[in-house]
Structure formats: C-alpha cells, structure tokens
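call fold(seq) -> tokens
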Amino acid sequence: ADAIGALPYFLQQVQAPIFGSELTIELAKLAIKEQEALKDYDDYHVVNAKTEIDFGTVTVSFFNTTHSIPDSMGIVLGTPFGQIVYTGDFKFDQTAEK
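ret:
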C-alpha cells in the first residue's frame, strides 16, 4: 500500500482489476479518485490470507506479512512447475510468538 503512487497512471494504460487488503483498497481508491479519467473505475477486490483465486493453470493465494504498513500481505503463485512467493518488502517482528 505504500507503493501505489503510479497506480492511476497504470490504470489509464491497462484496464485491470485491483486486488488488495481492505486498507490497500481504500488507499488505492484515494489515489485513483484524484484522476478525473478514472472517476468511474470500480473493479476492486478485497482479499485476505484465506483468499485463493483460480486463473486456470495458476492459482493465487495470500499470506499476512509484518510491515510498517498495516494489513500487508505476500502473494503465492501456484503454477504447474511449482510455487512463486513474492513478499515485497517486510520487517522482522521481534515480538512475535514462537
């Protein structure tokens, strides 16, 4: 959610849905609302750590991460060849239970 500044410009070139946590979606809506050309954009999808999306041969699932931005998540792409995990950036939580 802390790296969405280019999102409105991206959406002017590529019509794509936005998937994110509740907080990420709200921040995206604020960024997009500033662009007159996107005033009617409404393709938002809230996901959480239990969400799994099937795109045919690829599935996408999410997991919670520790970050300076609340409600951050990592992504797992399940492919026929294995899994690809993307975390973006994160921080270690020294207070987490073992």
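Strands lie at 18-20, 44-46, 52-54, 59-64, 73-79, 82-86.
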